[in-house]
Amino acid sequence: MKKIIMVSAVILLVILGVGIYYLDGAMPIGSGYSSKYVCSQTFLAGRDPVWVFENDVKPTNPLFKLFEISVDRTAQTVRSAGFGFWRPTTAVYREGFGCTVAIDSTREELHRQAEGALEQTQPDFEKAWPFGELVDFSNLPPEVDQVQLNKVVEEAFKEPFAQNLRNTQAVVIVYQNRIVTEKYEKQFDPSIPMLGWSMSKSVTNSLAGILVKAGKMSLDEKAPVESWQKTGDPRGEITIDQLLRMSDGLDFEELYEPFTDVVQMLYGSNSMAEFAASKPLAGPPDTIWNYSSGTANIVARIIRNKTGGTLVSFNDFARQQLFDRLSMHSAIIEPDASGSFVGSSYMFATARDWARIGLLYLNDGVWGNERIFNENWVHYSTTPTSKAPKGEYGAHIWLNRGEDGNPENRLYPKLPTDLYYFGGFNSQIVAVIPSRNVVIVRLGVTHDDKAWDVEQFMVDVLESIKS
Fold first, then answer.
1. How far apart (Å, rounded) are the C-alpha atoms in residues 65 and 55?
2. What is the pTM of this model?
3. pLDDT tens across 340-379, in order?
4. CB–CB of 39/277 below 8 Å?
5. What is the extent of the structural domain holding 382?
6. Is 138 within a domain?
7. Rounded to the nearest 10 degrees, what angle do helices 261-268 and 293-306 cross at?
8. Residue 444, beta-bridge partner list
9. Are residues 321 and 407 in the same domain?
10. What per-residue confidence (pLDDT) applies to 449?
């Protein structure tokens, strides 16, 4: 009997130890996610932190219910910790830069990084969109069924399920270079910046395209990653092109669970690019396609380094060469603690500004009378990388091209094969459909994919525009 008791006690201790170990590993995810998310939504988007924590953060993962947050409006920081004390993290807000988790850094050090940067410019409310903020829904093109289109958009904000909520926050539909309808959830309006999550990767593509056009970067050059330059390191052969197509071969795990690469990178790394660059090869470059936020952040650091090597120099480049040229006055890509922008995940912009970047691609990289990208950049970016099984990925942009030789086997079979899109967590999308001259923007916080059928939504939008 004593032996049974002892064995049982050992088993319980082992189970308890494993549970504590798992929780300890999971705590930085919850504290990092909640402090960063609430910080951005509070100080950048101007939302109520308690509401955001209860309705946006906690439903993301049951683990997040174990956390408590505290907001310091004077210091403009948000602290989060498990049970209020376990593995705390603090996110720091900086005007014009959004929020950053202070990993191996202090609030004072982070603020010094941002000194001397260009400020955000202000929108022009007298000019018509896309060059200003004036939007007129009268005299729409005759092929737009305005009544039907508005019904489709209204439906996107309804909640047909009691538990699985859509949480749509904004919809903007663009046709023939103008907004033909838009709608916002009651907490939002056209002036509030919204998180795009992985749609940020496609904006990283834009910044790369600008550098290529300026002759400061080429697709076939070897990626200038210092840790890969040792003699005999096969990663030194990885090119910019392979990074953009996520065919670099790096062994990076895009799985959002404790101890996995992407969560350690986002919530436990001072330098996200350095964390990703430290991964070994899973196979030779161009033999594997692996969707990777780590790869996007390696590209982001390369862009930063090619534009001066500091957070301020990157900020000024992004504003002058992309955001201000497109009248995207709200756009911010938040940086990590090392001062490199998080090109994988952390761009905020208003729904209208997200529509502007989609319109840039629809117009083949031309804005007004100005060419932003080389003539072949959009074609390159929307050409399937060879190892993507359904032709679903180009260069940091999702595609609907379908399997080579069998285009019916594609992500969205009800939609045209020329559809391409920026896609992000919680069902964010900027969809571009060149054959229909349409850009579709949908932003929200959908926690369950069963609540939201993005394909049917886009089908319904296109059926309302008889072009």
1. 11
2. 0.95
3. 999 999 999 999 999 999 999 999 999 999 999 999 999 9
4. no
5. 146-463
6. no
7. 40
8. 168
9. yes
10. 84
